[in-house]
Fold:
Amino acid sequence: MVFETRLRTVAQPSLDDPAIAEAAALLQAGATVAFPTETVYGLGADCTKADAVARIYTAKNRPHDNPVIVHVAEREQIDAFCEAYDERVALLAEAFWPGPLTLILKAKPYLHDTVCRGLDTVGIRVPAHPVAFALLKKSGLGLAAPSANISGKPSPTKAKHVWNDLQGRIPLILDGGPCRVGIESTVLDLSQPRAAVLRPGWITGRQLDEVLGAPVTREGDVAAAHRSPGTRYRHYSPDAPLYVLQPQVGDDAFVELQALILQQPAARLGYIGMRREVVTDQATALFYGCEEIDRFIHDLYMNLRQMDEEGVTHIIVDGCGEEGHGRSLMDRLRRAATVVLVSDRDTHAFCLKLSTEWAIGNSNT
Ligand code: TXA
Ligand code: MG
Structure:
């Protein structure tokens, strides 16, 4: 189905706002609506209606076995979607909701085939954004909402990113300005006795440990899988190949890779990181120091999208340490990367491989 997508700004979110009223009516009728949250923009639909949820999958081109999380206005509403009371939920909700934490809980059976995609658990969160809150309140619904991008692309942190991906595929986008956090929520599995992080995010493992009074299992680390070809799983990816350099990679190795890329005909290099001294003026460069990691995270998806728009052909990004928010940044970079280079030797070997491939490619054309 082709839609004439409308983009409406919500300046002063309230239950009386006409854009909120229009969006709520669409959702009640089973349509999809994109809306801002504090993390990224979501594409919402009534989580209790199978045909409404199916429209999300069609619009995003989302793999059918990937479950979507449910958003509610207030934590008291989760009983409608989850089985059995768990005292950890009360502790975490008190500390982090509304906010960027998704809890995986045993789902009510009527959700198994819609949002859970065959699992018996459901992800649920209370977002901290006035537009999301007004929409959830006005519609009175639980909203199934994955990030509002075409599957595989970087998540949208501005309404225009949603427009670029989903224009013609959904009826309405609510513009509530840029998202405050810029990466997706932390996903914490509470369906097992020991809580486990399935996706690192803004709320860190240490914060969760403190509130629960016991260490949570840290997962969501895809480094090993990523480096074995065949199991590589790209996500959050720009169109241009993305080379991620771990902090151990020195400036000489960086310069070697940079020079190799710029030898390619019509190459346009994009760079995000800290190497102000050695980045050539030819590159579109964005500099972030180690101390600016939150801004790096906030801007990451926006910058990757921007580089694609500008016709950048290769992107190099400096990784960071895994402490605090660094863990979620590295998780996203690893998933988005064409390759992660961990050392000078690794970078040198990769340059040799690239130059051989490119020499063969160029002689064929
Ligand atoms: O910040 C966010 O979480 C954003 C905003 C819109 O709320 N949403 C978001 O949704 O990032 P999505 O679908 O792009 O990512 C949700 C992640 C997916 O990796 C999905 O596989 C996982 O949560 N997930 C959802 N339900 C699950 C379940 N029952 N068990 C395990 N993982 C689940
Ligand atoms: Mg997503």
Q: What stands out?
A: The CA atoms of residues 268 and 310 lie 9 Å apart. Residues 146-147, 155 surround magnesium ion (ligand 2) (CB under 6 Å). The radius of gyration is 21 Å. Residues 6-225 form a domain with the DHBP synthase fold (CATH 3.90.870.10).
